[in-house]
Structures are given as C-alpha cells and as structure tokens.
Specification:
By secondary structure, the chain is an all-alpha fold. Helix content is about 80%, strand content about 0%. The chain has four helices and no strands. The chain has helices spanning about 5-15, 15-40, 40-60, 70-100. It is elongated, with a radius of gyration of 21 Å. The chain starts with a helix and ends in a 9-residue tail after the last helix. The model has no long low-confidence stretch (mean pLDDT about 90).
C-alpha cells in the first residue's frame, strides 16, 4: 500500500497496521531530520514520537494528494524547534536555581 492508501485506511478504520506502515515508511526520515536539528539522540527520539502522535491526531484533516513526507518534515521542524527552546529554557532555569541555592561567600563561616 502507498502512503495515501495507508492514511485512508488509518482514518477510516483506525487501523493500527496502517499506522504502523506509515511509521515504518517514514520513521527514518523523521528521526534523521530531528537529529540534525536537535543534535541529541534522546531528544530526537522524543521529537519523532511527537511527530507521529501529531500525525495520528491530524490524519483526518490531511487533504488527499498532499505529500506526506513534506508534511512530516514540516511538523518535525516545528517540533524540533519547540524541543530545542524547551531544552534551553530548562537548562537556564536549572542554572538559575543552582546559583540561588549555592551559599554565598560569607566570611563569618570561616
């Protein structure tokens, strides 16, 4: 089955096999694009998972004839950008929290 047939089967019958076929056909594209963008294997796996979750949610709204790889790449780009921003924010907040919890140089402790 091609992508259009698999997508149609998934939308009409909620077929796990059809969705698994879509994932199998495109997981390498999505993961490699995510890895190039986020430069972290674990984060790229998270991005890949979120892309396919979004595919499952948005499948009924995808128009017939749209190129699925292009849609997946665009979603991967957005999800990767969000992941990088979230990771930067998390690191900044952790650094700030560490700075706040470190004791100040107080001469009365000497």
């Amino acid at each position: 089955m091609n992508d259009a047939e698999l997508l149609r089967e998934f939308v009409r019958n909620h077929s796990d096999a059809a969705f698994a076929g879509l994932v199998k056909n495109h997981v390498n594209l999505v993961y490699s694009a995510a890895l190039r963008m986020v430069r972290d294997a674990a984060l790229a796996e998270d991005v890949t998972q979120s892309v396919f979750i979004q595919l499952a949610q948005k499948a009924p709204t995808l128009r017939e004839g749209n190129a699925l790889p292009g849609w997946l790449y665009r979603v991967t780009h957005c999800q990767a950008a969000n992941a990088v921003r979230s990771e930067q924010t998390r690191r900044r907040l952790e650094t700030e929290a560490t700075m706040q919890t470190q004791p100040e140089d107080n001469t009365s402790w000497k």
